[in-house]
Amino acid sequence: MALEVSHKLAIEKIYSKVISVPCQELFEQQSSEYKNKTLNEADFTITIEAGSKESWHKFVQKKGLNFGIDEFGKSAPFKEIYKYFGLTANNISKKTKNLIKN
Q1: Mean per-residue pLDDT, 29-56
Q2: pTM score, whole prediction
Q3: Considering the domain boundaries, does residue 99 fall inside one?
């Protein structure tokens, strides 16, 4: 999904970089130089998580958006759940463009 968002933004001449962080604990163990280079290369950070977004706030702080699922008890095929929670490439790219324009 992140790659799809990146492609949608590229069509509108908005540069983005997709970084996969499958294990936050391992990322946290990296050097400060590496983490700063990775996280601060762009003006904004967007996270996409098919679960709770709570642990991602520390990476975004006040310069981006977190997309995820912070509510439990819903049941449906994953595409329907993603749409319900706004985890779609269209929604994420739209909100990202709005963030950049403001």
Answers
A1: 91
A2: 0.87
A3: no
